[in-house]
Every structure is written in structure tokens, then in C-alpha cells.
């Protein structure tokens, strides 16, 4: 019956359209209803089947509608569905926290579970401030983030973000304490002949200058995504960059926050993105793939520098959401993580990621309007440009990435994520491909072919 209702809605909205046509609409026209998803496919109704190449915003990392995950959630709901973090610590919260700590080999020592990436970032900003209050350095009120970054939609996390388009309506945002340095975007910023080391050094010098300009002892924390997500479209920091940034933070006594909400939890081929080069942050945020979309789950992970002070001074973080440390969220996230572990899916991210990289380069590498193909693991971005040689972007009014998204969905039945350049000037107009970690290689190849046809058509 829901199928009938759904079909009627589509018919009444636009009688000549198929469900798939309607799927490429946006908020202004009214999103179509979704009935079902299973594995790597969305089923919007009327027999339409859309290959899921992005898991929403890089969330559905083990595919949709798994019974084993549903069972874990239900059995926790049956045991107890809610308890306040202020009264008890739910057993699954303890278990998933222990699991996370162990996954960092003890580098992270404390976990606060939340529901969204924005909340986790918000908590990281607050804990940074409180840490310095405990340390008797209350003047450390400044934060340094990066241009071309995204950290969330709440006012603090948005202030830390360099996403000009998303910040736009809210300017002046929480301005005075949030400062920016440039991102690490080799496609657009690397000088000819500049190697990774020289590029990283140049960026570290820029960070040092920012510390000097603000007064080194006024900075609480520096926040960055080790691999930039939706603001730029899957741009990994170059080798050595994260270490160079950490050295500067340590020199001036500021905390380093890695926002791994999008690039973490296996997405880029290591469970934690920082494990690739073993550059350990002081605070780390995770989200999205943590519970694979089966529950709204995120977390703030806290490293030794902060936890040791907390222990020594007997301090507790002044923080708390009603749904913090939610037992069903915890039980579900733990199940998703166990599946990733037991099915050896991170190794699959590496292997499938290499396949995806090769095939994208093969099919689209020479396309005159594909400026850059970049990423890591199963996290790939394709940036569109008007002129490949000069890297001149398209006029943002053309919304090229959005067009590719629409055509991919409507004509080639594959869902990709798209983002208009976050600077608002067309640079960074991209689509993102973020398949489930267990997507078979044949489907990975299928994704690449369908996306290529959509790009060619647009
Ligand atoms: N941080 C990063 C790197 C993100 O990509 C996002 C969301 O896309 C967020 C934070 C915010 O997470 P949420 O949308 O779950 O609040």
C-alpha cells in the first residue's frame, strides 16, 4: 500500500514523471519518498533501483538494512532503551568506548558518545577551552581552522569551518575567536616542482605566522580534517603535512583536533585517518561510518594530554546532551564496528579503493572538464573545471556537479554526493564517490562506468 501512496504522490506532483525523474529533484521541488534500501541499492518505488555510490554523505559504510545490526539495536532496546549519562553508564557505552580506545592502541583514552558530527566538534571546541581553564591559561580562547573545511552546522562548528557558502547567511558568525589558515589543497596551491615536504613546510610556516599574529599563548586549538570531506571533495593532506602541523601546535602549546567525522572509521583505508602516518591528535571527532547510518552516532575521543590533566586535577568536562552516551546508539555502533572488523572490511577499502582509483583515472583522467581526481580508500572526489590546463572553474551558476548528480541519478541510476565549491566561486565544484566498504569489485567498476557516462553526458 505504501507503494501505491508513493506512486500517487509522484503522479499528483508531476503526472508525466517517473519515480527516477523525480529523484533528481531538490528541496525546493519536494524530495521524493523513499520506500526501501537494501545492500548497495536504494528502492524509491515503482521498481526503480539506484546504485548507492555514496551512502548518503559517506555514512552507510556496510550497506543498508542488515538484519544483524537491526537485531543488535532491538536487543538493546529490549534490555533498556535509555538512561541518562548523569545517572548510569550503560553497559554498551562502556563496551564501545573500550573498543574505540583499544582501536587507537591507547592513544585516545576517553570517549564521549554523541549523535552528530557537529555535536562532537562542538564538544571538542568546548573541551579545548576547559582544558586551558584547568591549566590556568584562560587566555587561550582562540581557535585556528582552515579555509575550505567543514566541521558542522551548529554555530561553533560552523565558525570553525571555512565553508564560505554555508557560513554565508550567518555572517558575522562567532568571528573574533575563530581564525583561518589556508587548506592543504595541492591541486590548486602547490607551486610547480614543489614536493610534499616543501609544500608542508610552507603550510607550517603559515600556521606559525598565525600563532605569532594572534599571540601564541592565546590559541586553544587548531582544528583540521586529515582528509577534507564535503568542503572540497576528498582531498588528503600531502605526506608529512599533518606531522608538520602537529609540531607547530606542540611548539606553542595548543591542542590539535582532527575532525574525522567524514574521513575516519575506515573510510580512507585505516580505521582512524591519523593512523596512516601515525600523527596522533589531542582530540578526535568521529561520526558517519561509526554506526554506518543505523543510528545517529558520533563521538569525541580524548588523548592522553587532556585525560592526564583531568585525572591529576580531578576534573570533569562540563558538558552533556540528553542523548549523550545513548545505549542503543552505543550497541548499534559497536555492532557495526564488529562487522567491519570480523568481515575484514578495512582491507577491502584499501583493495577496492585502489581499483576505484585506477578505473576513475582510466575513464575520466583525460576528460577535458575533469580537473582533478583525488582521494584515498573508498573516498574519491572528482573536481570539474571549464579549462583543464588553466584550472579555470565553471561559472558557479551552471552548478556542474549538481547537474552530474542529477543526470547520474536519472539516467544512469547511480547516487553520488555533490558539492558546489565551498568558496562560492566555482573552485572545488565536485562529486564524491563513497561506496560501502563491502561493495564488490564488480559494483565498484559499475559505479565508475555509470558516473563516467553521466559526466560525459553533462
Ligand atoms: N565534520 C566533518 C568533517 C563533516 O564532514 C561533517 C558533516 O558532513 C560534520 C563535521 C558535521 O557532522 P553532522 O552533519 O553529523 O553534524
From TrEMBL:
<dbReference type="GO" id="GO:0030170">
    <property type="term" value="F:pyridoxal phosphate binding"/>
</dbReference>
<keyword id="KW-0808">Transferase</keyword>
<dbReference type="GO" id="GO:0008483">
    <property type="term" value="F:transaminase activity"/>
</dbReference>
<dbReference type="GO" id="GO:0005829">
    <property type="term" value="C:cytosol"/>
</dbReference>
<comment type="similarity">
    <text>Belongs to the class-III pyridoxal-phosphate-dependent aminotransferase family.</text>
</comment>
<protein>
    <submittedName>
        <fullName>Pyridoxal phosphate-dependent transferase</fullName>
    </submittedName>
</protein>
<keyword id="KW-0663">Pyridoxal phosphate</keyword>
<dbReference type="InterPro" id="IPR015424">
    <property type="entry name" value="PyrdxlP-dep_Trfase"/>
</dbReference>
<dbReference type="InterPro" id="IPR005814">
    <property type="entry name" value="Aminotrans_3"/>
</dbReference>
<dbReference type="Pfam" id="PF00202">
    <property type="entry name" value="Aminotran_3"/>
</dbReference>
<dbReference type="InterPro" id="IPR015421">
    <property type="entry name" value="PyrdxlP-dep_Trfase_major"/>
</dbReference>
<dbReference type="InterPro" id="IPR015422">
    <property type="entry name" value="PyrdxlP-dep_Trfase_small"/>
</dbReference>
